[in-house]
Amino acid sequence: MSSEKLIIDWSSKKIIRPQSLGNILADHIRDLIVNCQIEPGSLISENDIAAQLNVSRTPVRAALQKLEMERLVQIIPQRGTFVFEFNEQEMRETCEMRQILEAGALQLALRHDRQALITLLRIHLQHGREALQNAPETYREMDAAFHMAMIESSRNKELINSYKTSINRIRTFLNHLTKTPEEFQSSQDDHEAIVELLDQQQDEQAMEKLEWHLGGLQRRYQEKNPGRIPAIPSE
Fold first, then answer.
1. Based on C-alpha coordinates, what's the Rg of the chain?
2. What is the predicted pLDDT for the residue at 178?
3. Are 150 and 109 in contact (CB under 8 A)?
4. Cβ atoms of 177 and 219 closer than 8 Å
């Protein structure tokens, strides 16, 4: 047996740490909130979650605290944990922030590689068509993927992280308000129009269409809650 010392660069070996139970629970509860299986304003019982999943309250509490940092729940001492609800000002301001982030991401993505962006978005358009044809209830995932493709194509980590921090609140309300095949189809039509305008290098018109598309959340909320938020003028 050789007596030579084996030299290994241990720093090159990536150690994958198991995900904590708290993070797993946070992911699960987040999905339930975003996909409207837990309604906005609902009370979430820490004790019920722990009992039903046969876990201690400690990881449940950690999960809810994580979701509070993401502003998906509000923990009120002596009362409990509640799923967030938008008020009028929060909805408007969050939608405005989303419009700024997505418009900025689109400009950066076009500057980096226009054709690569268009090719990627066309793939997501096809996924959207297939969802509408075969399983409309899955369209929400295709919609989210289309917008995330634009964001990630910006190649700007700060922008991407800011978007990911806020998008779950938007997705929760969007999923709550958008439920019919006709509403899904309208979203897909907007996506198709945006990509077509980009392909024709009509960037200003594409930006205007994107802004109109993202304003759909407020318009839909106004339709279903008349008098709550001033209506956005139609095209």
1. 22
2. 86
3. yes
4. no
Tokens of 99: 């419009």
Pairing relation of β-strands 43-44 and 80-83?
Answer: antiparallel
Nearest Cα to 73, choosing from 57, 89, 59, 85? 85
Residues 169-226: tens digit of each pLDDT: 889 888 888 888 999 999 999 999 999 999 999 999 999 999 999 998 888 887 777 6
Digit-coded pLDDT (tens) for 63-92 = 999 999 999 999 999 899 999 987 778 888
Q: Which tokens is 66 given?
A: 């994580």
Q: Are 80 and 206 a contacting pair, CB within 8 Å?
A: no
What 3-state class would DSSP assign to 229?
Answer: coil
Contact 221, 173 (CB under 8 A): yes
Distances (CA, A) of 98 to 16, 104, 128, 152: 33, 10, 21, 14
Question: Contact 6/43 with Cβ under 8 angstroms?
Answer: no
Counted residue by residue, the chain has a size of 235
pLDDT at residue 115 in the model: 97
Q: What is the pLDDT of residue 233?
A: 36
Please choose, from the candidates 136, 218, 152, the residue with its C-alpha nearest in 3D space to the C-alpha of residue 184.
136
Identity of the amino acid at 21:
L
Interatomic CA distance for residues 73 and 229, integer angstroms: 23
Q: Alpha-carbon distance 146 to 152, whole Å?
A: 10
Q: Which amino acid is at 88?
A: E
Q: Specify the pTM.
A: 0.81
Q: How far is CA 47 from CA 33, 50, 52, 76, 82, in A?
A: 18, 5, 9, 15, 14
Answer yes or no: are the C-beta atoms of 188 and 129 closer than 8 Å: yes
